[in-house]
Design goal:
Length: 877
């Protein structure tokens, strides 16, 4: 209401009945929500009742919400469709924005759903109307992005209206049939998650770019709810709900007891596909599919002579035939291609030993061969393809690793040692003396299908040699370190995983003649940690593993689309938890996939020097990357395996989650003043950046955005500087790192001189930090006064930390036995602290291996999960 107080004019909320708003007569308040109040009003000029949405002044001062309100007006005003709320006017009165729209009578779909499921025929009718409304919006380049039952209104005459385009994304339409159609591009900042939990698409949860298919996913969730009366992805918290959207399938409609036609269930399932490529490609297609399911047809009565009737019957029959043929063609080209499915899973081993995730699995049809850690070393092991006890493969090769079977099943190709370049051996089966393959040294290797040659990676190159090691030559330089080469069954293509400086892998392909090296585009870009690929024996599919959200799943790429293929080849997710499966290897007959599958679980422990034991810490929380405030009152950690950042008091109280997917955090460090946490985070683009978040739990803020990524942040003692690792530009094939300093006051980044090749910086005092040499794994210290480096410990070490300024605490690395030690800063004296050879630790790249309390206690994460070999029975289309 407009009031005059002296010379001051202002709008008071709520508006009283009888008051005026820019010429409209307010009749009463209809409702209120987070985006404003809605009033019933009368338009005196056109003598009709309207609805007016008013943005309160305290909200209108918020630029973001004001922008969203204006977006809603722009989006809705651009549309004129019976299934979309009509907007008549948008304006501002005394600085208060308002929107005038048609007045609806009826109820929201949410209100209707509170009474239970919607009858099938009515749900289909509602669905057709919603799909037509979405199609109209999408044709104008508008994506709603917040479709939910609250934003759908059912009028008294059964018409469905789409409301609230407050999150609508207007995008450039490629071909405009109307020159007045909007071409405004108005998105959100990258990384912002917009929408409502429970109805968001997977790409919205991941804060990826969205298109009209995100509305189709939300539509599927709404249609599921209309048919079953249950929400498709509802969990107790928003974070759990979003995780379910990414990983879980809703309960099958057939399991809810509802009598739903199978064809309608398939429509719902297609809308809810995790991969946008497998959903309906347009709302028009969706409306067509639903319309085909409706049974509303009539048969008018006519009077005509026999010839006329006959002629009409022929015309009708021809039209029906054409319609049927068109429908068949449409469904042939529009429905998703049949995809392979895992029908059952069988556990083959149960010996409790660690099955290495970086090795290989192979089978000759009767036995399955793999690598496991046993008595502190690697060993080749075998189990029957039907399951049973695990037995060693007798060999004299020291630290045998990465077994690949020969095409004639006569033996295994084995590297000596897990990482780096190692001698290559051939181990005969079932036993015998191993033979060294020439002087080849390899990261990993595979036979060609005829068994006459060996393809192998040697750091950043891919090479080929004869079976005896002769005639070795390079095929190509890779864009990073190469692992797991494999050759197609026809011998024409070679694929390998190539790791970037952050060890995120992508699949690359090259011809067997060394030509046409390229990255596979059939692997979605958001699958940024791809590993270990193998072809099925018939060459129709290519299997690979991908790590995401703290878990690894198996995917397949269709290699040979058949005649009249309906869609281009896409990556198909075969497993979706709860086991974390990797090293997928097809069986000899192609009906099974053998894989290493793990139940991920960790237990935080500390080392008691008096008892010489590892004792659970913080209740044995499943956590990695633990860090403490300087006074020991607060602790932050990364939950395992989902990689969310948490903070709590050291006694376990006040536990608060600080990050949510799609942010996956690592190496958090609390600032010296105890108010902030810095951490590295990886999103779906494979690049890590440095973020900071308040201990109270506000939204994380990016502070360092290096072009090639940044890792391993560490505070200076005064809290003004951060040391971190950055990948060297234009040298990704060498995977070199250097140490940089970020000044929080000035925002400037500088490089520590001569720090190329050094990793994991640790500030010991304000004048000194230490780091590891990436090649030799020895500890070096840097003196800021003299700006020079010097050796501190020979190593090899894999991780270090410091709390007191007197010692650097490290973990020894292979080939040394695993142990925790401390090195005195003044003279480099090394003191053993704990034997770690019997502690099965969780070690993940980008995370710490040991954590320190303020008083110097050693903490580790003990692996309490299981890793076993499984057989997945596959139904191929």
């Amino acid at each position: 209401m407009k009031l005059r107080v002296g010379n001051i004019i202002r709008i008071t909320m709520p508006l009283a009945a009888g008051s005026k708003l820019d010429g409209y007569e307010v009749l009463g308040l209809l409702g209120a929500g987070g985006m404003g109040e809605v009033y019933r009003a009368r338009d005196p000029a056109l003598k009709r009742e309207v609805a007016i949405k008013v943005l309160p002044s305290f909200v209108s001062r918020d630029p973001d919400r004001l922008h969203r309100f204006e977006q809603e007006a722009q989006a809705a005003a651009a549309l004129n469709h019976p299934n979309i709320l009509a907007v008549h006017q948008f304006g501002a009165f005394d600085g208060t924005p308002y929107l005038v729209s048609e007045l609806l009578t009826g109820e929201s779909l949410r209100h209707a759903l509170q009474r239970g499921p919607i009858p099938v025929r009515k749900a289909i009718d509602y669905g057709i109307q919603i799909a037509h409304g979405l199609a109209a919006a999408h044709e104008h380049g508008i994506v709603h992005r917040d479709l939910k039952p609250e934003n759908l209104f059912v009028t008294r005459d059964g018409r469905v209206k789409i409301l609230d385009f407050g999150l609508a994304k207007l995008k450039q339409v490629q071909q405009q049939s109307d020159g007045n159609a909007p071409t405004l591009t108005a998105g959100t900042d990258p990384g912002m998650v917009m929408g409502t939990a429970g109805y968001m698409s997977p790409e919205q949860v991941r804060a990826q770019p969205v298109d009209q298919r995100t509305d189709i996913f939300a539509f599927g969730a709404i249609l599921y709810e209309m048919l079953t009366g249950r929400r498709a992805f509802q969990r107790s918290t928003s974070a759990e709900t979003m995780t379910a959207i990414l990983n879980d399938e809703p309960p099958a409609i057939s399991q809810t007891g509802a009598n739903i036609p199978p064809a309608l269930q398939r429509v719902v399932n297609r809308c809810l596909e995790k991969n946008p490529e497998q959903r309906f490609h347009s709302a028009s297609d969706l409306a067509f599919a639903l319309d085909a399911l409706s049974d509303s047809s009539g048969s008018p009565t006519v009077t005509a002579d026999r010839a006329t009737i006959s002629r009409r019957l022929w015309l009708v029959g021809g039209a029906v035939a054409v319609a049927i043929l068109a429908a068949l063609v449409y469904f042939w080209w529009s429905i998703p291609r049949a995809v392979p499915q895992v029908e059952s899973v069988t556990q083959l081993t149960d010996d409790g030993e660690v099955k290495d995730e970086f090795s290989s699995i192979d089978s000759d049809g009767a036995r399955v061969y793999f690598t496991e850690k046993y008595a502190g070393n690697f060993r080749l092991a075998q189990v029957a393809a039907s399951g049973g006890p695990v037995a060693p493969v007798p060999t004299q090769i020291p630290a045998p690793f990465r077994a690949t079977i020969a095409p004639d099943f006569s033996g295994l190709l084995v590297t000596e040692g897990p990482f780096g370049r190692h001698p290559l051996w051939f181990q005969p089966l079932p036993g015998g003396d191993p033979r060294r393959i020439g002087d080849l040294e390899s990261q990993s290797a595979a036979f060609t299908p005829d068994g006459k040659q060996i393809v192998y990676t040697d750091g950043a190159t891919i090479n080929i040699a004869d079976r005896d090691g002769s005639n070795a030559h390079k095929l190509a330089d890779l864009s990073g370190w190469g692992f797991w080469p494999t050759v197609s069954p026809d011998g024409k293509k070679i694929r390998a995983m190539v790791a970037d400086p952050e060890y995120n892998g992508s699949l690359w392909e090259i011809g067997s003649d060394g030509n046409d090296l390229h990255r596979l585009t059939t692997v979605p870009k958001d699958l940024f940690d791809v590993a270990y690929g193998r072809w099925t024996p018939d060459g129709r599919y290519f299997l690979f593993a991908n790590a995401h959200q703290g878990r690894t799943d198996i995917w397949a790429i269709s290699e040979k689309p058949g005649f009249l293929s309906r869609a281009k080849p896409v990556a198909i997710q075969l497993t979706n938890g709860p086991l974390s499966c990797t090293l997928p290897t097809p069986g000899r007959d192609g009906k099974q996939i053998f894989a290493r599958c793990a139940k991920l679980r960790g237990e935080l422990v500390h080392y008691d020097r008096k008892l010489n034991q590892f004792i659970p810490f913080l209740g044995g929380t499943s956590a990695i990357d633990v860090a403490f405030s300087r006074d020991g009152a607060w602790v932050v950690y990364i939950s395992y395996p989902d990689q969310s950042l948490w903070r709590m008091r050291a006694d376990g109280r006040d536990r608060v989650q600080l990050t949510y997917p799609p942010i996956f955090a690592s190496r958090p460090e609390i600032s010296p003043d105890g108010r902030r946490v810095v951490f590295a985070q990886s999103k779906q683009d494979s690049k890590s950046d440095l973020y900071m978040v308040e201990m109270e739990g506000r939204a994380p803020e990016k502070i360092v955005d290096e072009p090639t990524g940044s890792l391993f942040p560490y505070w200076s003692p005064d809290g003004n500087l951060l040391a971190f690792n950055a990948a060297l530009p234009n040298k990704r094939t060498q995977m070199q790192m250097e140490i940089r300093i970020f000044d929080l006051k000035s925002g400037k980044v500088s490089v520590i001189p001569q720090s190329s090749g050094k990793v994991w910086p640790v500030w010991v005092t304000q004048e000194m930090l230490v780091a590891l040499e990436a090649d030799s794994l020895k500890v070096s210290r840097y003196d800021f006064k003299t700006q020079s480096w010097s050796d501190l410990g020979d190593g090899p070490f894999s991780d270090c930390g410091s709390t007191d300024g007197k010692y650097v605490y490290c973990v020894t690395s292979e080939p040394s036995p695993p142990a925790a030690v401390r090195i005195r800063v003044t003279d480099g004296h090394l003191e053993p602290l704990a034997d770690l050879s019997k502690l099965n630790r969780i070690v993940t790249y980008g995370s710490s291996e040991l954590y320190l309390t303020p008083n110097g206690e050693l903490l580790f994460t003990r692996d309490t999960g299981t890793q076993e070999i499984y057989a997945l029975n596959i139904r191929w289309p």
